[in-house]
TrEMBL record:
GO BP terms: Golgi to vacuole transport; intra-Golgi vesicle-mediated transport; macroautophagy; protein transport; regulation of protein localization to plasma membrane; retrograde transport, endosome to Golgi; vesicle fusion with Golgi apparatus
Residues annotated as domain T-SNARE coiled-coil homology: 24-91
Keyword Transmembrane helix on entry: yes
Keyword Coiled coil attached: yes
Organism: Drosophila lebanonensis (Fruit fly)
Coiled-coil blocks: 67-94
Main location: membrane
TM region(s), chain numbering: 100-119
Protein name in UniProt: Vesicle transport through interaction with t-SNAREs homolog 1B
UniProt-annotated stretches for the region Disordered: 1-20
Length: 124
């Protein structure tokens, strides 16, 4: 027999085909449901990963700014240390110069004392 271009199967096979189709629909629905759950989990993981990435990027930006400030401070300290070293060298030269002048003054005083002693004892 034929209904609208389809041939009707014998009565026993119609039930079996219907059961197979229903089983196939249930299996397909289960697979689709599992895929939907898997996609939902994947979307959730992607969202969490994106949020973590945003937080890490923000932290890295903050750390970069901190490192740049630290670099600037270190450059300033280096400049100030160079200035301090120049000042210390100038002071060292000045101290050395003062010591030489002091030694010369002492030598001159000693020579004057020796000369005065010689003049006193020899009585010209």
């Amino acid at each position: 027999m034929s209904h609208g271009g389809y041939t009707q199967l014998p009565s026993g096979s119609n039930n079996r085909d219907h059961d197979q189709q229903q089983h196939l629909v249930v299996d397909t629905y289960r697979v689709l449901h599992n895929m939907k759950n898997s996609l939902d989990r994947s979307n959730q993981i992607a969202s969490e990963t994106e949020q973590i990435g945003t937080e890490v990027l923000s932290d890295l930006g903050t750390q970069r700014e901190s490192l740049l400030r630290t670099t600037d401070r270190l450059e300033n300290i280096d400049h100030e240390m160079s200035e301090a070293q120049r000042t210390i060298r100038k002071l060292s030269r000045s101290v050395l110069h003062n010591k030489i002048v002091l030694i010369l003054i002492i030598v001159i005083e000693v020579l004057i004392l020796i000369g005065a002693s010689i003049l006193k004892f020899t009585k010209f």
